[in-house]
Known about the structure:
The protein is of the alpha+beta class and about 90 residues long. The protein is about 15% helix and about 15% strand. The protein has one helix at about 25-35; strands spanning about 40, 55-60, 70, 85.
Amino acid sequence: MRQRIVYYDSTVPLIWPNNGIIRDAFNVWVKQVTDSGLLIGTGTPVGNVEAERGKFYMDDAGAAGSVLFIKQLADVAGDRTQGWVAVG
C-alpha cells in the first residue's frame, strides 16, 4: 500500500542544533517525497523497472498510448518488474 506523505512540521528544526545531524523525521519526509515522484526513463518499464504498486513511469521516447504507465500489481509471480499497465 502506498504511503501518504505527511507534511513536515516546519516548527521543528531540520537538524539537531548541537551536532548538525539531520533529524530522523526530516529524513522520513524526504524519502516519502522522493518515493512519490514520477519515474522517467527510455523504453517500457515492463520487465525492466522495479517499483511499488501505484508508482507512475513515463517513457520519454514512447509513442501515443505507451508514454505513461502505472504499476498496478506489486509483482507477478514474485517479479517486481512486472505488473505495469500502459495508461496513456
